[in-house]
Amino acid sequence: MDTMIRVDQLRRSFGPIIAVDGISFSLTKGEVLGFLGPNGAGKSTAMKMLACFLEPDSGSAQVCGHDILKDPIQVRLNLGYLAEHAPAYGEMTVGSFLKFICDARNIRGAARTKAIDRVVGLCSIESVYHQSIETLSKGYVRRVGLAQALIHDPPVLILDEPTDGLDPNQKRGVHQLIKKMAKDKSIIISTHILEEVEAICTRIIIIARGSIRVDSTPDALKKEYQCGLDEVFHRLTVTKKSA
């Protein structure tokens, strides 16, 4: 199988706080990984390192065979990243923002038109295409963020809370989109919605206090612990002292 992401002893601290403490895992084509953990567990920090927004203190990672430190440009070409608080220029219309992203990624001419038409349809943002981003609801802003992550059709996607702010019907649409894309990509999703994990993820990593506590599948975890994912999550991330 094609290994699309490889992480080896990745570590990052902020002063005395160890955010990510030597995590290792790999991801192959066709896998949708649910990256779970309580707030402050290190999820977003790990994803920012993979997306070349933060440098690790030590360890290494590759995306499609390209090292995040030695070849960050190639990593970015092969990766689509939706941050937890996706940056956007509020005064821009949705259309002008997507054109700006295409320019940044050197997607021009007919290829730019085709790319924008594709993601506008995929993310169902036709009705707000000419609106300024600052006038959009949180759900639409999230969908615009998803569109920019998909615009270059990358083989790897890292999505931090992709359905945050969406209503149930919009969430369902994003779930269907992820399932549709999954066969041709490797996808990491961070979410606090455990029902979402069961609906779309083929694999789960639970991280707490910067370390991986388990790497398994939803069904295997439920069978091993003889309970639902919410109880599994609780047992693996809450110590007796803190509970």
Please tag this protein with its features.
10 strands, 243 residues, four-stranded antiparallel β-sheet, 9 helices, alpha/beta
Please give a structural write-up.
The chain has nine helices and ten strands. It is of the alpha/beta class and 243 residues long. The strands form two sheets. It has a six-stranded mixed beta sheet, sandwiched between helices. A four-stranded antiparallel beta sheet has the order 2-1-4-5. It is globular, with a radius of gyration of 18 Å. The mean pLDDT is 92.
- Overall pLDDT, averaged? 92
Enumerate the spans where pLDDT stays under 50 for 5 or more consecutive residues: none
Number of helices: 9
H/E element sequence: EEEHEEHEHHHEHEHEEHH
Outline of the structure:
The protein has helices at 43-50, 72-77, 94-104, 109-122, 138-150, 168-182, 194-200, 218-225, 229-237, and strands spanning 3-14, 17-28, 32-36, 58-63, 66-67, 79-82, 156-160, 186-190, 203-208, 211-216. It has 243 residues and is of the alpha/beta class.
